[in-house]
Design brief:
The strands form 3 sheets. A 3-stranded antiparallel beta sheet has the order 1-2-3. The chain has a 3-stranded mixed beta sheet with strand order 6-7-8. By secondary structure, it is of the alpha+beta class. 7% of the residues are buried. It is 32% helix and 25% strand. The longest helix has 19 residues. The chain contains 7 helices and 8 strands; from the N terminus they run H-H-H-E-E-E-H-H-E-E-H-E-E-H-E. The termini are far apart. It has 3 domains: 33 residues, no CATH class; 53 residues, 2-Layer Sandwich (Phosphorylase Kinase, domain 1); 84 residues, no CATH class. The radius of gyration is 28 Å and the shape is elongated.
Amino acid sequence: MGLRDRLLGWPVYRQLTGTDPLGRGAAACSSRSAELTARTQDADRVARSVCPYCAVGCGQRVFVTDERVTQIEGDPDSPISRGRLCPKGAASRSLVTSPLRQTRVRYRRPYGTEWEDLDLDTALDMIADRVLAARADTWEDVDAEGRPLNRTLGIASLGGATLDNEENYLIKKLFTAMGALQIENQARI
């Protein structure tokens, strides 16, 4: 291949001498780039979600192929993020698909050195028993002067950023009904 042929094949030369005045036409494409397809083209379905990392609540589009998450991108229809994601949000696919992700309930007994697997019903029963015990052990009916308190300082709640208003409302009602005072949400911190 001679110098003239190499110059004529050079993409910059083709862009400058082509018919597209902005140089974005066919001259800018290589044969490899012409064959590329979007990672999301073969997805079976797209689910909408919210990024799990911070309190902003950026919208995400989750692309699923054969019931496996194949890509997570920003949702351009989200009024909050308008399709943009921070680096953590953009990398959230690895949160779901990592082989290191725990998918079972793991429990280490007090003073234990080994983790054991528990079924979900057993774990939920253990949590309920501990919440009830903490409430009973720290319940305050009245203060030193006899004024009613009906509270516990032994239970607190810190809600996550991905909870919507309805879920936060129900959590607030639950913890208030249990007598807890320390109820906060990450979105306010």
